[in-house]
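Hypothesis: this fold can be encoded by more than one sequence.
Test: take the structure tokens below, design a sequence, compare later.
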């Protein structure tokens, strides 16, 4: 339409919209709402006055009761932190639900960002996207909700009420597992491992559960309400199907666990909102994660038997896959964090390293004033699952207040198992410079003592650290006990067990009010010399004072047993005559297979010598296909005023700024104060690829103290690749008040240089068959042979009773034989999709 013709603001009411209307023009927010009456009502003014009065009332009461200023400041800080945490959680939940609704669109729009923001099936080619599994879970989800509601109301609620007299009126008032149709545990990717034991099936499920779960709890006695409104859980769960048997159901049991702690985010409601207060939120999330990790994160496993007669202890607590000996040697070129004279003089750092493998964490000594520290420390870690478990290393600068981050690196321990020895420098990430030198050794677990003397002899020669390396590991599976003695006063005890090897002591969980406890826990110890060491077992009451029984087993007894294992009942000393305990103890010798290293090295050298080296590189087809898009943000006109005064009775102006999103990059312009016709004159550049999802998104906002107001989203110029015969294949819609007077103007230009234009009076469509114009038209102002192919369609719709309007549709535009200018675009009217029509 003509640029000086404003668009009508009445909402369109189409009785029978065409398919193109419904598919290509989504209903805007303004069109979805009913028209609002104009003017300011007295109720709105009173409501605004009441809100202002309620905001000032706490200030008046604080002054009236002479509350300390420091207490007020502290309360405001706590409230601000709580509000910030709540808004952040809600924003994460909304964005996660939006991602679950449109994962493909999100992946396309973020395709140029770093890989860790993309789903697992995008990052790793061996991870499959299993939509069929999600569809199955989608069908099961309503019945899962019914089961959970029944479990909470009929089982958990009575148990909580009976645990305390203060909770006798507790009840679940609402249990809603979400009205959105989404799977129970949406699996965004699955990976099957085929290189492991043939007697098992090993799967990795990449889980991303986002649910608008609502669970409300009420304690009527204290008028107290609490609950949960939204949960997020992200992590990788390993599922092992073993043992495989030759009978139905083929699989004997299903074992599930998280290799690393998953990421959990809970949106609290009611009284539990206090858990979002800074300080308490970290504590509450940590306690919840500890509870989950106690039964579902390595080394803990959840085992579901499918057939009877299985040895669940071996499935629940299997022997480790091996041990990795980590030599933290040195680092080089670390970033300097200790600067002087406010950063004018760069200093050095006091670096130290933190190493993590699953729940095992080690911290090195810090070295003062150096960017190239030499640690020379050794650590031994137990590896339960490979591939899967990783070595995470973070380097920090030691400071009196807060330690500065110097970088991190990560290594899959499956590489160490395959290579036996890895001795290399690892570059630190998320830092300007720095690398760390490690030597990692994979130690196999031998079930015999044939190589024990050789292992101890080699360790005495090669040991260069203060703590000597271990020669074996001891795995103790604490099963159960029987007929323990009663406490004083003939009360049943709360037994727990302390297991000690030299100066290392571990404790089991507590079993309450029983003389026949079942612990079913596994413990691991590193052993230096099994001929001289013992394991001491003390069964005590929960208060750690009264001893219910004791047992000492010399490890030399294991050396003479079959398969280095003792799996039997043991009589307890200093206990009842019938008191005994069932323990399974396994000893394994740690062996570094150097013979395999030398054989692999010689075979690799022979293969490399016979391999013909390439003469040229073979780049990927997408190499060097990137292009540069330059965006000029010039000005805006006739923007909507949002900064109103006195409850909207006095119109103000706006403080506009522009947010541009394209190719995974976001640009934000400067804010122009109190101006409805701002001028920015800013330029942005972004590198684009040929991949899909590179659309330009422009949004206009009004800057405010609390929340920025949305001003609209302008349509952008569509830019074609460099060509003299471009094709756009786009459709646009315009509202026409009077077809006899209005015109369609199409301008073609290469940036600011005009290349031709076409003017089509809308009245010409009234004489076309079926009100459709579809042909080539000459471009005025271009070359004599320049033409444009377009299809224009006029549709008449009746709105209300007497108002007649028309929709003008441009279906396709193709231009042939343009002037030889690099790049071209079709220039249209900049329309605004305003949020209030």
């Amino acid at each position: 339409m003509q640029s000086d013709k404003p668009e009508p603001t009445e909402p369109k009411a189409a009785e029978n919209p065409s398919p193109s209307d419904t598919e290509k023009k989504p209903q805007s927010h303004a069109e979805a709402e009913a028209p609002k009456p104009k003017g300011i009502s007295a109720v709105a003014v009173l409501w605004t006055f009441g809100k202002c009065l309620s905001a000032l009332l706490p200030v008046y009461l604080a002054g009236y009761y002479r509350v300390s200023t420091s207490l007020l400041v502290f309360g405001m800080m706590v409230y601000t932190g709580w509000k910030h945490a709540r808004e952040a959680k809600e924003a994460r939940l909304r964005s996660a639900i939006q991602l679950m609704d449109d994962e493909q669109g999100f992946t396309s729009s973020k395709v140029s960002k770093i890989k860790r923001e993309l789903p697992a099936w995008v990052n790793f080619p061996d991870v499959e996207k299993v939509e069929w599994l999600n569809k199955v879970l989608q069908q099961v989800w309503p019945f899962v909700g019914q089961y959970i509601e029944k479990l909470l109301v009929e089982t958990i609620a009575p148990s909580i009420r009976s645990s305390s007299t203060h909770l006798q009126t507790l009840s679940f008032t609402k249990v809603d597992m979400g009205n959105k149709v989404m799977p129970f545990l949406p699996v965004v990717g699955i990976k099957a491992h085929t290189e492991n034991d043939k007697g098992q099936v090993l799967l990795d499920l990449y889980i991303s559960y986002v649910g608008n779960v609502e669970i409300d709890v009420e304690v009527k006695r204290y008028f107290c309400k609490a609950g949960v409104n939204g949960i997020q859980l992200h992590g990788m769960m390993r599922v092992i199907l073993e043992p495989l048997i030759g009978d139905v159901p083929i699989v004997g049991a299903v074992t599930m666990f998280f290799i690393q702690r998953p990421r959990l985010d809970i949106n609290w409601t009611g009284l539990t909102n206090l858990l979002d207060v800074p300080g308490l939120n970290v504590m509450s999330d940590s306690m919840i994660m500890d509870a989950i990790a106690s039964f579902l994160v390595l080394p803990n496993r959840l085992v579901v038997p499918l057939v009877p007669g299985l040895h669940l202890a071996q499935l629940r607590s299997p022997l480790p896959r091996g041990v990795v000996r980590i030599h933290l040697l040195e680092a080089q070129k670390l970033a300097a964090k200790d600067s002087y004279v406010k950063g004018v003089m760069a200093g050095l750092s006091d670096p130290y390293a933190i190493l993590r493998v699953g729940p095992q964490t080690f911290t090195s000594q810090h070295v003062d004033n150096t960017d190239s520290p030499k640690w020379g420390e050794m650590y031994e870690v137990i590896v339960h699952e490979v591939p899967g478990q990783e070595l995470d290393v973070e380097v920090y600068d030691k400071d009196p207040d807060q330690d500065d981050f110097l970088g991190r690196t990560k290594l899959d321990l499956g590489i160490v198992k395959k290579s036996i020895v890895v001795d290399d420098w690892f570059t630190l990430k998320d830092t300007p410079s720095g690398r760390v030198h490690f030597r990692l050794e994979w130690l196999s677990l031998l079930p015999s003592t044939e190589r024990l003397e050789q292992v101890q002899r080699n360790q005495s020669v090669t040991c260069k650290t203060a703590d000597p390396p271990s020669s074996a590991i001891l795995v103790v599976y604490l099963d159960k006990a029987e007929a323990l003695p009663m406490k004083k006063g003939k009360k049943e005890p709360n037994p727990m067990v302390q297991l000690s090897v030299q100066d290392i002591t571990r404790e089991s969980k507590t079993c309450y009010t029983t003389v026949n406890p079942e612990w079913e826990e596994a413990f691991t110890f590193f052993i230096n010399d099994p001929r001289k060491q013992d394991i001491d077992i003390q069964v005590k009451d929960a208060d750690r004072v009264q001893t219910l029984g004791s047992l000492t087993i010399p490890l030399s007894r294991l050396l003479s047993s079959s398969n280095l294992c003792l799996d039997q009942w043991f009589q307890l000393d200093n206990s009842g005559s019938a008191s005994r305990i069932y323990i399974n103890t396994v000893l394994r010798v740690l062996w570094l297979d150097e013979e395999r290293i030398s054989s692999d090295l010689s075979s690799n050298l022979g293969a490399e010598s016979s391999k013909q080296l390439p003469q040229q590189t073979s780049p990927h087809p997408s190499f060097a296909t990137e292009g540069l898009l330059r965006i000029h943000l010039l000005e805006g006109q006739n923007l909507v005023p949002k900064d109103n005064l006195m409850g909207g009775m006095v119109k103000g102006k706006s403080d506009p700024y522009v947010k541009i999103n394209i190719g995974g990059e976001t640009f934000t312009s400067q804010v122009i104060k109190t101006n409805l016709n701002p001028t920015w004159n800013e330029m942005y550049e972004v590198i684009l690829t040929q991949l899909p999802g590179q659309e330009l998104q422009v949004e206009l906002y009004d800057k405010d103290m609390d929340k920025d107001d949305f001003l609209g989203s302008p349509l952008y110029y569509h830019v074609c690749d460099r060509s003299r015969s471009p094709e756009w294949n786009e459709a646009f819609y315009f509202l026409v008040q009077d077809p006899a007077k209005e015109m369609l103007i199409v301008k073609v230009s290469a940036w600011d240089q005009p290349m031709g234009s076409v003017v089509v009076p809308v009245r010409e469509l009234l004489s076309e068959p079926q009100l459709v114009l579809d042909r080539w038209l000459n471009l005025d102002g271009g070359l004599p042979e320049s033409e444009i192919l377009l299809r224009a369609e006029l549709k008449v719709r009746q709105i209300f009773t007497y108002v007649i309007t028309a929709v003008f549709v441009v279906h396709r535009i193709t231009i042939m034989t343009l002037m030889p200018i690099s790049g071209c675009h079709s220039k249209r009217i900049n329309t605004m999709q305003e949020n209030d029509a």
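The longest strand covers residues 201-219. The mean pLDDT is 76.
Hypothesis status: open.
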